[in-house]
Amino acid sequence: MACQSKDCLDNKKMGYDYAPMPTPWRCYKPQTKCTKGKLDSSSFKTVVDVFPLSKLDIIVSFSIKRPATSRSQQEKDKQEEFLIFKGVKFDDREYIRFGVFLNADKTVNANELDKTEYAGSYSSLPHVHAHNASHEYVPREFKLAITELLEDNGLEYDDTIVVTVVPKEGSEVISIAVFLVINHE
């Protein structure tokens, strides 16, 4: 009897098929915050006043102008809107992590990541062993797609948005040079 590799790749040919199971996380939409309404972006420092950050050791909130507002669905499908952190530097011997929220007010708990305000997080595991003294502070770039997040939070027509960066771990060794919002294909 001849058996080929391709026969092993099809589960049905092998006589096994997975039982259909619901996957609720595929279509899951996070909860909206308790307090309705948008934050007053004029009460926050602008991105120019905050960046560059030499040390991310406290929660930082700032407002930033968006490149385009009230885009059509066709434009949104063609170009995704991104939050971009450029020049993220840290000690690669340390575990680091920070979270990013949009339009988060005081009622949003930074540890609850199932809210619509949560945009994402950046984390990096140590890459150099502790006994090795040489390490690098290589600048990295971190992008978050926010088009759908802006729609979910009702911010798609706002000229400015409020971004909150929450340090979680290793915050004393993180620095961020530039922060941008751009449209990208």
Which key features would you list for this structure?
single chain, four-stranded antiparallel beta sheet, Polyphenol_oxidase_cen, catechol oxidase activity, 4 helices, Jelly Rolls, 11% helix, three-stranded antiparallel beta sheet, Polyphenol_oxidase_C, mainly beta, 185 residues, 7 strands
Model description:
This protein is mainly β. It has helices spanning 5-8, 47-50, 73-78, 147-152; strands at 60-65, 80-88, 96-102, 118-124, 140-145, 160-169, 178-184. The chain has one domain (37-184): Jelly Rolls (Sandwich). It has four helices and seven strands. Strands 1-6-3-4 form a four-stranded antiparallel sheet. A three-stranded antiparallel sheet has the order 5-2-7. The chain is globular and about 75 Å long. The chain starts with a helix and ends with a strand.
SSE layout and pairing:
Layout: H1 5-8, H2 47-50, E1 60-65, H3 73-78, E2 80-88, E3 96-102, E4 118-124, E5 140-145, H4 147-152, E6 160-169, E7 178-184
Antiparallel strand pairs: 1-6, 2-5, 2-7, 3-4, 3-6
Task: Give a concise summary.
The chain has 185 residues and is mainly beta. Helices cover 11% and strands 28% of the residues.
H/E element sequence: HHEHEEEEHEE
Runs with pLDDT <50, length 5+? none
- Overall mean confidence score, pLDDT: 80
What is the percentage of strand-forming residues?
A: 25-35%
How many E strands?
Answer: 7
How are the strands ordered across the major sheet?
1-6-3-4
Radius of gyration based on Cα positions: 21 Å
CATH architecture label: Sandwich
Give the CATH level 1 class: Mainly Beta
Q: How helical, in percent, are the residues? A: 10-25%
CATH-assigned fold name: Jelly Rolls
Structural class: mainly beta
What coarse outline follows from CA principal-axis ratios? globular
Number of domain modules: 1
Q: Biggest sheet, in brief?
A: 4 strands, antiparallel
Note the total helix count.
4
Distance between the termini: 52 Å
